Amino acid sequence: MAVTLVNPDGLPKPEVYRQLSIATGSKLVFLAGQVARDAEGNPVGDGDLAAQVEQAYVNIGTALAEIGGSFDDVAKLTIYVVDWTPDKMPLLGEGVSRAAAAMGVDPTKPITLLGVAALGEPDLLVEVEATAVLD
């Protein structure tokens, strides 16, 4: 694995993400934002934020597996949530936990969480963009 996750002294140490990642690999991978669509492009989790988060994370893992990596190689995530409010955090966490269990990975990456008015299609509640580093 080319990515080491760190919560440095002098900064808060959140349980759900890490403050930084140290990448030592030689190949940078920039994934397009992943959404709640299965391999055939069918919608997943209509109206269910946790299910959509889970699918987006699993899609990232699937994309990385195709090129010899895994979700463990993710160095940074940007998560876009439609109409974000803090009360949605448990649903976000549930989706992340379910994806982590399904993939057998540690999902605690450095993240940026952004609330947005809308995404590319009206049924989408979340989009997750990833940067990964592979050896």
From TrEMBL:
Molecular function via GO: deaminase activity
CDD domains: YjgF_YER057c_UK114_family
Gene3D superfamilies (alphabetical): RutC-like
Highest taxon in the source lineage: Bacteria
Transmembrane domains' residue ranges: none
Pfam families noted in UniProt: Ribonuc_L-PSP
GO cellular component, one term: cytosol
Annotated family: Belongs to the RutC family.
Protein's name according to its UniProt entry: RidA family protein
Organism: Phytoactinopolyspora halotolerans
Taxonomic lineage: Bacteria, Bacillati, Actinomycetota, Actinomycetes, Jiangellales
